[in-house]
Amino acid sequence: MCNECDATIDELAHPPELMFDAEGRHPYTFWQSTTWKGYPKPLQVNITLYWNKTIELTDNIVITFESGRPDLMILEKSLDYGRTWQPYQYYATDCLNAFNMEPKTVRDLSQQSVLEIICTEEYSTGFAFFAGPRLHNMASLYGQLDTTKNLRDFFTVTDLRIRLLRPATGELYVDPQHLTRYFYAISDIKVIGR
């Protein structure tokens, strides 16, 4: 993170296109939201990815956070070019409290329940680096896209939306004296499809 950020100065700016610039490691870039200056009003940000066509996801969605992982986040998909949205996966430090859902991990899913929309706490700590629907045996699932209609429908999207609902605070309560510490920053989003 930089010590000073300023959207009006190119060298100090972190605009949204830096989430997709595939820079490798040098120069290192990232998008950064504003800080949570309006607390207690929620700091919520939507990031919408659209392709103007239907795609089938063929690999994990990977979001690399430069900041701490959000305490609350929802990944949503659209099948009608963003007119309507449906949840794809929920992320929270406390699923039961945040979304009234029992926490699960993708390892809890079987071939029969892989289409279940879950809330996971697994990717909602400050120490995790990737988010998204991640299964350890995804290659075999993606290989079944051509033969399993329900699976193909589940991985078909026209748009994806990342709803960042609460930034990482690292604590139970927000410290009003340190609101500039709370923000979202993403260095890379990878979505692979056909």
Automatic annotation (TrEMBL):
It comes from the Eukaryota. InterPro entries: Laminin/Netrin_ECM (IPR050440), Laminin_N (IPR008211). Residues 1-194 form the Laminin N-terminal domain. Gene3D superfamilies: Galactose-binding domain-like (2.60.120.260). Keywords: Disulfide bond, Laminin EGF-like domain. One of its GO terms (biological process) is animal organ morphogenesis. This is NTNG1: Netrin-G1. It holds the Pfam family Laminin_N. SMART domains: LamNT (SM00136).
